[in-house]
Design brief:
Elements lengths: L3 E3 L15 E4 L2 E7 L2 H18 L15 H11 L7 H33 L4 H23 L1 H4 L3 H20 L2 H10 L24 H11 L7 H16 L4 E3 L3 H4 L3 H7 L3 H13 L1 H27 L4 H6 L3 H4 L4 H14 L2 H19 L10 H31 L1 E2 L7 E7 L2 E7 L6 E7 L2 H12 L4 E2 L17 E9 L2 H7 L9 H13 L3 E6 L2 E6 L2 H39 L21 H12 L5 H11 L7 E9 L2 E6 L2 E6 L2 H10 L3 H11 L8 E4 L2 E4 L2 E4 H10 L3 E3 L1 H4 L5 E6 L4 E7 L15 E4 L5 H13 L2
Parallel strand pairs: 1-4, 3-6, 3-9, 13-18
Antiparallel strand pairs: 2-3, 5-6, 7-8, 10-12, 10-13, 11-12, 14-15, 16-17, 18-22, 19-20, 20-21, 21-22
């Protein structure tokens, strides 16, 4: 006779998106995910608010009839079993404030994931969003309690469980949201049942397969949905093993505990009449076990009826039964407790209380009859109802464990000894850390945004197509299913004289370069630049738009010109102050004569000491020059900058080991941009000898294939892309009365014309064989920039 295979269908947890998959080796493939800082901060506040609620010092007050929101009232009653003094009014306020607001945030994310799935053409993006949320919650909760170890260690497991329960309620309500269902049908038409296995109150608090033992204990000790205990679970498994062993028609394709996690498999195993009779016989033969099954099953139903009654009438003595629900089992053994409960119900005297009295009487009778062997025994229908209830609960227990195992096997911690996750990696945008409270002078825990360099790195990874940015609105992924290795515009900005300036800096003068460095970074970010790195005097970024890139370089030069003017004013002020101090101390005279005898027995500043050293080295000569040099050294420097812009593919490499791994850009176009930003010293000397230091007509020069750049240089490839993006005009040199033709376009954001001119001579860059054609973009530091804008404006009048 052909045997019937019985197997368990594993939940479909698959997600595949080729372009975003990170693969360090064939066995280590995963997707990276990040959430906005404000969402992470919202979750931190949600946990903080929940913890503060549970430890509120408010005294319980009587309350009237409760809302018809079963999830809300059931969770409150669950909390009362551990936090019996929790007042309803405080809970009600928290629920409609923190819980509802946070739920709306998650709902927005899910809605956006459905919209993005349609727009980007990424299959199962909504499902992956649910996976990401569940994983993020578990990691964040773990981090929260690790950082608050001393505060919550004693009741950590309890708080874990209840956070899991409320998050499960939130996710379940979003899952059943009709608005989301309608949107899903409209946008993707996908079946939401794939998400079912993720809705697990334990998946949102644990991310390690090794945590299953904790979960099993938590389910039996605390989970109100699981009324069976370890003894019942093991006994049922043994009975099934015996039944299957005596059945030659069934072959198990998996472990028995996994098989019975599906109720349809239990029905298959017991579908044969002979097997069913054997199963019933084994249950009935153990009277103590049968009695326990009935009491556990009846207790759950009675507790549910008591909760419904309290919701209807409000505060009453039944609250104490909810707080200490183990007393329900005592009514089967202690008549005094039973009569006391009956007395409370009679005082209430309504339809529900009368029904509960009758039900309790019948329930006690069923327990008594379960011990009879021949007469007045449990009827077949009564027995069947109880056994089905127990089997469904045992099946639910194993289903929760099975789904958790499958999820965390694919998207969970690789091992108990590693923080590395398989299948998914969360890039946090917040960090929980201790800070000193100004009022109490004690350390407190806060949730703050990660350092700007880490945040920028995440933004860069997103632009490179290597992370999903899961948020309320905006794109989850750049470019959908197309190849994410797009060509980019690379900008490299090189600060002039910054190395010499940096070498002279002290702790008092180290901040002088900050305005320049901050300007480069800030302007780049404001114009959609993605930082590659910022090291010393060099800043590199890539842009998707050529006009954004050129605009950023143009504004940087405009702001640097302002900073240099500001620096010159401060140098002059420093000169005057130094001259005043030196003359007051009679070290120098008003007609710039040096008196060495006046330097003794006087308190001198470091500036004055440096001045004296310089004067001594020059035998008291060139006092005005020395004052100027000291003023320059102790003032904000006048820094020039050269910017190179190129166009090419963005290539990535992964460096580092273990958990410390990150992407670096190795694009040849970036190297070329760095070369273009530099200045050849020979050309610099040639140009200064030709025009003088302060009278340079342009900011970019080429001499003997070598480049001098204190402006903006773009390659011919960049210019060709510019012509695609905007309309570029040309002014012939004869018309504008210059020695070169001028190219220009209108920048709407700047509300002015950006002008440029092609250099007649190509340049030879180090490490690049071919000659490079370059174009100078005129900066605000050149007279030609304003001249061209005025000329165009007049010509259009």
């Amino acid at each position: 006779m052909k045997k019937t295979p019985v197997y368990i269908q594993k939940p479909d947890l698959s997600f595949y998106h080729k372009n975003s998959e990170i693969s360090y080796d064939p066995t280590n493939k995963f997707y990276q995910v990040t959430f906005p800082y404000d969402f992470e901060k919202e979750f931190y506040d949600f946990i903080e608010g929940f913890a503060n609620l549970l430890f509120t010092e408010s005294k319980p007050k009587d309350f009237g009839a409760l809302p018809k929101d079963k999830n809300m009232t059931d969770f409150y009653f669950d909390l009362l079993t551990e936090f019996g003094g929790l007042p309803w009014d405080a809970y009600n306020l928290w629920y409609y404030d923190k819980k509802t607001k946070f739920q709306e945030k998650i709902k927005k994310i899910i809605i956006n994931s459905i919209v993005e799935s349609k727009k980007l053409g990424i299959k199962d993006l909504e499902f992956f969003t649910w996976v990401s949320l569940v994983t993020f919650f578990s990691l964040f909760i773990e981090d929260y309690f690790h950082k608050h170890f001393e505060k919550f260690n004693i009741i950590k497991e309890t708080l874990f469980y209840f956070l899991g329960e409320i998050l499960y309620i939130i996710l379940q309500e979003i899952y059943n949201d009709e608005e989301i269902d309608a949107l899903r049908i409209e946008k993707t038409g996908q079946d939401k049942r794939k998400i079912d296995s993720l809705l697990n109150k334990y998946s949102v608090i644990y991310n390690d397969i090794a945590s299953i033992s904790h979960i099993e204990k938590m389910m039996i000790d605390m989970d109100v949905d699981i009324f069976v205990d370890r003894t019942i679970i093991n006994k049922i498994l043994h009975i099934f093993e015996f039944v299957i062993k005596n059945n030659n028609n069934i072959v198990l394709q998996d472990k028995l505990r996994n098989i019975i996690s599906d109720m349809s498999n239990i029905r298959t195993i017991l579908s044969n009449k002979k097997d069913r009779k054997l199963f019933i016989k084994l249950i009935r033969s153990d009277k103590d076990f049968l009695e326990k099954l009935i009491i556990k099953s009846e207790k759950k139903h009675i507790l549910s009826l008591i909760r419904e009654l309290v919701c209807e009438i409000g505060s009453c003595n039944l609250i104490n039964v909810i707080r200490n629900d183990e007393v329900i089992e005592d009514i089967y053994y202690d008549k005094r407790i039973y009569l006391q409960l009956i007395r409370i119900l009679k005082e209430i005297d309504n339809k529900k209380s009368k029904y509960l009295i009758r039900y309790m009487f019948d329930s006690i009778d069923r327990v008594k009859r379960s011990r009879n062997r021949f007469f007045n025994i449990l009827g077949a229908k009564e027995f069947e109802k109880i056994i089905i209830s127990v089997l469904e609960n045992v099946s639910l227990f194993h289903k929760i464990i099975f789904n958790y195992f499958c999820l965390r096997d694919k998207y969970g911690r690789k091992s108990s000894y590693s923080d590395e996750l398989s299948g998914i990696k969360i890039l946090r945008q917040s960090e929980i850390k201790a800070v000193r409270d100004a009022e109490t002078n004690m350390d407190i825990m806060v949730c703050e945004t990660i350092p700007i360099n880490q945040k920028t790195r995440i933004e860069n990874i997103y632009m490179e197509g290597n992370v999903f940015y899961i948020r309320y609105d905006g794109s989850f992924y750049p470019g959908g299913d197309e190849n994410v290795r797009k060509k980019k515009f690379f900008m490299f900005a090189d600060l002039r004289n910054s190395t010499e300036t940096t070498m002279k800096l002290t702790k008092d003068t180290a901040g002088f370069l900050t305005p320049y460095l901050s300007t480069v970074y800030k302007v780049s970010k404001e114009n959609n630049g993605n930082e590659i790195y910022f090291a010393g005097d060099g800043y590199a970024a890539h842009f998707s738009s050529v006009t954004d890139c050129i605009r950023a370089a143009y504004i940087i030069h405009r702001e640097f010109a302002k900073l240099r003017r500001e620096a010159e004013e401060k140098i002059k002020q420093k000169e005057k102050l130094l001259f005043k101090n030196l003359t007051e101390k009679k070290i120098i005279t008003s007609d710039l004569k040096y008196d060495k005898t006046k330097t003794k027995q006087q308190s001198l500043t470091q500036e004055e000491i440096d001045f004296l050293s310089m004067i001594e080295a020059n035998n008291g000569q060139h006092i005005d020059v020395a004052i100027r040099r000291i003023a320059e050294e102790y003032s904000m420097p006048k820094v020039e900058i050269g910017v190179g812009i190129t166009y090419g593919e963005l290539f990535l490499a992964v460096i580092g080991e273990g958990n410390v791994q990150f992407n670096i850009v190795l694009s040849p176009s970036l190297t070329q941009a760095a070369r273009l930003s530099g200045s050849n010293t020979e050309v610099k000397s040639y140009v200064e000898n030709l025009y003088g230091i302060k009278r340079l007509p342009r900011r970019v020069f080429v001499h003997e294939k070598k480049l001098f750049n204190q402006g903006i240089v773009i390659t011919n490839n960049v210019f060709n892309q510019l012509r695609v993006e905007v309309e570029v005009g040309i002014i012939e040199k004869e018309k504008i009365e210059l020695s070169y033709n001028v190219l220009y376009y209108y920048d709407k954001k700047l509300e002015r014309y950006i002008s440029m001119s092609k250099l007649e001579e190509c340049i030879q860059l180090k490490g690049i064989e071919e000659y490079v054609e370059v174009i100078e973009v005129f900066t605000p530091a050149t007279e030609v920039d304003q001249f061209v804008n005025n000329w165009i404006s007049k010509s259009k009048m």
